[in-house]
Amino acid sequence: MKVGMIICERYKGCAGGKCFRSMRNREGAFERYKKDEELITVGYTSCGGCPGGNVEYAPEEMIRNGAEAIHLATGLVVGYPPCPHTSYFKEYIEKKFGVEVVIGTHPIPQKYFIVHDKLGSWDTEEWQRMIRPTLCSEELRKRYD
Ligand code: SF4
């Protein structure tokens, strides 16, 4: 299975440690893949900064390199504020490029969970749906703090 990842530009300096760890361990949004299935990253880039200009182009290159799914990194979900374009990006990439988009990569770190819970950031049906793959157990969230 080959995947691409698009991260939020706000975290462009991130070395990707949590995303790649969760990929190796099949945790968070990577839990959907079998442990014995080889998982290869064929592209890793940022959205290009608000409002996400690179989302228009990056998926094409990832698909050319074999991407069968594109993950929108957990940073989009946990940033302050969460990326307001997340659901649009998913719909746009799926409709334009015909590739599945998965929201999230690594489990939501517990420290972000606590603050967003207080803020009510995800108190809509849509956000509840979008955080489902990365919400995980409290124990797992703590391991990604
Ligand atoms: S908030 Fe959204 S559009 Fe803005 S930099 Fe982050 S991912 Fe890109």
Give the distinct bound molecules: iron/sulfur cluster
Estimated radius of gyration: 14 Å
Q: How many beta-strand elements? A: 4
CATH topology annotation: Rossmann fold
Compressed to H and E, one letter per element, the order equals EHEHEHHEHHH
Q: Low-confidence parts lasting 5 or more residues at pLDDT below 50?
A: none
Which of globular, elongated, flat, extended, rod-shaped describes the shape?
Answer: globular
Mean pLDDT, rounded to whole units? 97
Give the proportion of residues in helices: 40-55%
CATH class: Alpha Beta
Number of helices: 7
Strand content: 5-15%
The order of strands across the largest sheet is 2-1-3-4
Q: Give the termini separation.
A: 28 Å
Describe the main β-sheet briefly. Answer: 4 strands, parallel
Number of domains: 1
CATH architecture: 3-Layer(aba) Sandwich
Content-based structural category: alpha/beta
